[in-house]
Design brief:
Elements lengths: L9 E6 L4 H14 L4 E8 L7 H15 L1 E9 L8 H14 L3 E5 L6 H13 L5 E5 L11 E4 L4 H9 L15 H16 L4 E8 L4
Parallel strand pairs: 1-2, 1-4, 2-3, 4-5
Antiparallel strand pairs: 5-7, 6-7
Length: 211
């Protein structure tokens, strides 16, 4: 189990594929890491349908260093085949018991990608005893209306560096002429306007206790 140093918050972020976490909550993780909090990642697949699995895993390792993550857990599922079943719930539960997080970030359940959707739904079950669980958005998220915001103005450049660490994916947005950096920067400014700051990430809480 992770160290229970009461002065440090433990944060676990879950993503279906390499780069999902960086897109959805990389700024929030950097915000907390810069304040000395503990960051842990759990990636369920190596994203092999989007590129070479070994390359993508290595890119995730590089990005994790930029985020200040202490450990990366791998789920070992095939890309596009994450189930929504008891086995996935138990796998997430094991990591939750080890990390004992104060806060969890994961995909929003309403998503057109089945991997994102299934991971979100299983995480809801696996984190039923975790106080703070927040859903993040990605390019395939639907009906997302955030009510919680993190100001990422001071870490936006670092978030972009973490995304650029996924070099094989930067230009794979399915939108001609827009890189993932373009998409992420636009989203940061849009959520920032909603939150009344220059750049922000928005989240939908499943459960959130105010400090």
């Amino acid at each position: 189990m992770a160290s229970n140093n009461s002065d440090r918050i433990r944060i676990l972020a879950l993503g279906a594929h390499p780069d999902d976490i960086e897109v959805g909550c990389g700024g929030a993780l950097l915000h907390y890491a810069n304040r000395g909090q503990q960051i842990f990642l759990m990636i369920m697949t190596e994203g092999e349908l989007g590129g070479d699995a070994h390359v993508r895993a290595a890119e995730q390792g590089d990005a994790a260093k930029i985020l200040g993550a202490e450990k990366v857990y791998w789920g070992g599922y095939p890309d596009t085949a994450i189930p929504n079943d008891r086995g996935l719930v138990q796998k997430i539960e094991r990591v939750v018991r080890e990390v004992n997080p104060h806060m969890i970030f994961v995909h929003f359940p309403d998503d057109t990608h089945q991997d994102h959707r299934h991971l979100a739904m299983s995480t809801v079950s696996a984190t039923r005893y975790t106080k703070n669980v927040l859903f993040y958005e990605g390019p395939t998220t639907q009906q997302f209306s955030p009510t919680v915001f993190v100001d990422i103005g001071e870490v936006l450049d670092a978030k972009i560096r973490a995304l650029q660490a996924h070099a094989s994916q930067v230009n794979k947005t399915n939108v001609e002429g827009l890189s993932i950096v373009d998409v992420t920067t636009s989203a940061a400014h849009f959520r920032g306007i909603q939150g009344r700051v220059k750049s922000a990430e928005g989240f939908v809480p499943l459960r959130m206790f105010l400090p």
